[in-house]
Amino acid sequence: MPSPAICSSLHILNENYKVLLSRDWRGDVSDSCIQRFVSQMKGSDNDQPSIPIIRDTETKTTYVYIKGNGLYFMCTSKFDTNILALFTFLHDLLNIFIAYFGDLEEESILDNFVVIYELLDEVIDNGYPQFTEASILGEYIKTDAHKLVKVKTPSVITDAISWRSEGIKHKKNEIFLDVIEQCDLMISSKGAIVNAEVRGSLKLRTLLSGMPECKLGLNDRLKLGSEHNYPNIVFEDMKFHQCVKLSEFHEDKTISFIPPDGIFELMSYRLTNVNVDPLIWCEMKVEESSATRIEYVIKITSQFKEKHTANNIVIKIPVRSDVISPEIKCEAGSITYSPELESMIWIIKSLPGGRAECARIKLSFPSIAEERKTFTSPILSVNFEIPYFTISGVQVRYLKVSEKSGYQALPWVRYTTKSGSYNFRI
């Protein structure tokens, strides 16, 4: 028998390979698959016709894609899958979108992503393509001015809840929510922001009995696509767990769901073009006192409100491997020399907002300055964590749990901002 078509994830990209929408059904393909796919596409010879099948031997992932109206429809698979069936599915999916949205363009994807997620829930079941007849789908999923109205779907079409088992029991019913934002930053040697991006996620740990229905309300800071409060903050690449009822989120930013038991990611998002001051700012001056001696003066400043505190700050200061006899002075924390990392490591346990701390490091070298020319434009990296704080201002207004047995569940919400790739070029 021929192998079945198994689609691990689906991604829609524009002609510049920017991700407009993603859906992950099986969770067996890394988040880096997009970057690897884009690298393969950009590395291909434009003078030659491209083959719409890419096999990544390193990750053992197959990419299958089609292009229509300047958009790439790409699906991934980790299996020995039926490629022809996947191509058929992608073409059928393209026809479904055209039937729903008319002229299929980038704007129609962004304006109708909630409807698209609903359609994908019907045409794919755990990675296996199901029925893809637009005329049948039109009887159950209806749109009017980008608003989704979904009538009751026959049981032959919608399967039971696959992510949660019946009869789950816990002695103490609790639900824990972590709102985590991770900031990536690159500052040039002239102090200009080269790249700034924030990646956010809502992660849950549920210990709830029975079949609970949860409602999570967010504040108005969370906007979709180009619909936002601040001209330089745009939420992109919003992804939801399959348990989320997307129609209610589209209407009033309420996330309704019947959760899996245990730990899972309810939602993720990304912010680009973030026009805010870097949370931690670093300055470093290099003074060469002699042919074999260099002095580093490092200043770190916390650029957030005084009511918040950054914890576990680690600053990695690159130095040459032939450093001898370092002399260290710092106002806060401690600095140690790490030969294996070829770096000085400055650790500060906590730093309140609106504060600045300085350090001075004198380094000696056995070699003269002429032999040190190869050590140019080093990168100073920073790691930190700020509890009870988010860059985007996203906040949970409420988290409610209802279950037919009527038990009371205890909700816990925690906010954290962390550094991602947070670098300063010296």
TrEMBL record:
Residue stretches making up the MHD domain: 172-425
Sorted alphabetically, the Gene Ontology cellular component annotations on this record are: clathrin adaptor complex; endomembrane system
Q: Name one GO biological process term.
A: vesicle-mediated transport
PROSITE patterns found in the cross-reference section = CLAT_ADAPTOR_M_1, CLAT_ADAPTOR_M_2, MHD
**Key word RNA-binding present in the record?**
no
InterPro entries registered for this protein in UniProt: Adaptor_comp_med_subunit (IPR050431), AP2_Mu_C_sf (IPR036168), AP_mu_sigma_su (IPR022775), Clathrin_mu (IPR001392), Clathrin_mu_CS (IPR018240), Longin-like_dom_sf (IPR011012), MHD (IPR028565)
Name its cellular compartments: Endomembrane system
The protein's UniProt keywords, in alphabetical order, are: Membrane, Protein transport, Transport
- Gene3D superfamilies (alphabetical): 3.30.450.60, Mu homology domain, subdomain B
- Which domain of life, per UniProt? Eukaryota
Q: Which family does it belong to?
A: Belongs to the adaptor complexes medium subunit family.
What this protein is called in its record is: MHD domain-containing protein
